[in-house]
């Protein structure tokens, strides 16, 4: 996690996440990644690969969608009052396979923010950028005018959120 100060001297917290593909390890992350647990007192963003979708429209084969697989992520999002900033660009952030027979895709990567962060940054946009080298795409965070991109003066500390007792 980083504490960020922008050019207007507004402070906010930026958490970059990678959630494990293993369900019980993801659950540990949801139990740990809480504003109160982490003493986050500023507006905040959590961005990255959450390895979870939120609804059937976020997978390439909605006929095989199982709601229970995303229920804990949806509960965490609700409990923390996090808002999905949406996106411009490709709908799937993870892809595997190249033809209709073996293609799989899902929106596993996203940017979520607290209500107080969105109140201060109402023109924020998230773009999914194409990538041909990886099975995941890149995400860009900026404002709608295109004049501001994430070019921030970062002052603070980085830390790892432990998800196990070892």
UniProtKB/TrEMBL annotation:
Tell me the GO molecular function terms.
catalytic activity
Q: Which Pfam families does the entry mention?
A: Exo_endo_phos
| Limits of the Endonuclease/exonuclease/phosphatase domain | 16-125
Spell out the protein name for this chain.
Endonuclease/exonuclease/phosphatase domain-containing protein
Q: Which SUPFAM superfamilies match?
A: DNase I-like
Extract the InterPro entries matched here.
Endo/exonu/phosph_ase_sf, Endo/exonuclease/phosphatase
